[in-house]
Amino acid sequence: xxxxxxxxALWRPFAVLAAAAAVLLGVAAVGMSDAYAATLFSDDFEDxxxxxxxxxxxxxxxxxxxxxxxxxxxxxxxARSRAGAxxxxxxxxxxxxxxxxxxxxxxxxAVLARAQSNTSYYYLALRSNNTVELKKLVGGSSTTLxxxxxxxxxxxxxxxxxxxxxxxxxxxxxxxxxxxxxDTQFRTGGIGVATFYAAASFDDVTVTDTPGPGPSxxxxxPSPSTSTSPxxxxxxxxxxxxxxxxxxxxxxxxxxGGPTVTVSTAADFISYAQRSGPYVIQVSGxxxxxxxxxxxxxxxxxxxxSGSGFTGYGLNIGLPIDDGITSPPANAVxxxxxxxxxxxxxxxxxxxxxxxxxxxxxxxNDLSTPNDGALDIKRGSSYVTVSWNHTxxxxxxxxxxxxxxxxxxxxGRLKVSYHxxxxxxxxxxxxxxxxxxxxxxxxNYYNANGDYGVAATIGSxxxxxxxxxxxxxxxxxxxxxxxxxxxxVARDNCLVGTEPGETGGSVAAIPYAYTLDAACxxxxxxxxxxGTGKVGAP
Length: 538
Hints:
This protein has 538 residues and is mainly β. The chain is built from four helices and 44 strands. It has two domains: 45-208, Jelly Rolls (Sandwich), CATH 2.60.120; 246-529, Single-stranded right-handed beta-helix, Pectin lyase-like (Pectate Lyase C-like). Helix 2 (266-273) links the parallel strand 17 (260-263) and strand 18 (279-283).
């Protein structure tokens, strides 16, 4: 994560001064919460297979249900599919679960933890009799440990989490309904999903090694983690969603391993940017582009000094638009890093990411005066991190999800992290979100945003966490324009000259490690550390 331990040490005096000033001014400084949740396992099935899963009973396959999912389509048996390691001990397993059919009034779909075999494990079950139950199965015999009323409907997606820590078990549904129990039966084991005389789709399965439920709709501060797992990524390493392995790509490395070239003309830049294979492309000076310029996979594009970049037009990361493609194609643009670039005056977008492009890291740039958006991410693109950028003189700043009609391409995708950006009087769309869940907006500095900060609309789930909002008319809300409301959870934000915004619903768990700076110190940290001239050449 930027800043790293070294960079964080350099900025820490600013943070301390800001926090102290906040106290003197009577502003409540929110405490820092450090989360070190390493991802042990994740599968969104977008690779089209269920490698690593072992099914028993029923009919298991990878199918399409909005996005690609693991589906159990039969309703005439007890079925389960397991994954993971038998040595796992304390962890949280989270999955999106959509019951599609029940064969009777007391059937269920479930998420499993500490699975010993196909007949011995803990599980959190959504039952057709409108209950959720925390249970254990021992040699095929079940025991209910806790239960609660919950409306369970076919055709509805639920985010189900089951945490196991020592003898403590915690289950949550949609970040809200919470069941707890203590049991000594199983101390280790893998994970799984299951149906009992029911059919269901399962998606976005993640296992993190820090126990505890995912984010809820409560504004209460989470307790600091006591995990001893490794901290977030270090210098010059993509963090957030761009650091999560998926779709055949293990994190985001850009042009690492390829030749390093320096360009100062549009012709040379376009030639290298569109070649196959990895390249590190160093941009010297300001290059005028005459059209949106495509960037191919496996590229790092980095400006030299603090003033190098592009004008006239911006950069396009993605294949040509095709409404008929509804899952990531094998040739989707991927593994691209844009850093230390000053992009201004584009006749279109400064940066456009589209058509299932994935593993993109946009870091420490200065984006301004676009004719359209400063940074648009759309049409199924995912695993993107937008960090430490300074955006200014921009109206429609950052769009995530092009249109309500793009549900076939966007549902289950648009996984983006926005952190430590300076949204400097950018009027709206900081970001405006459709369908992505979870979208993580944390430790950003918002000042004088005249329309609104964050909008969570149709099908989305946005966690707005640890940000500094200063003199913002409307920091965050649900619904925007013709788009219906999504879900938005706000917690640990610092509001200065700003009233709280609109929240509602729940958001899926964040699957990666990150460190949260104290919200009321974010203004000093981000205004000093964002933009160009803060990172060196790769």
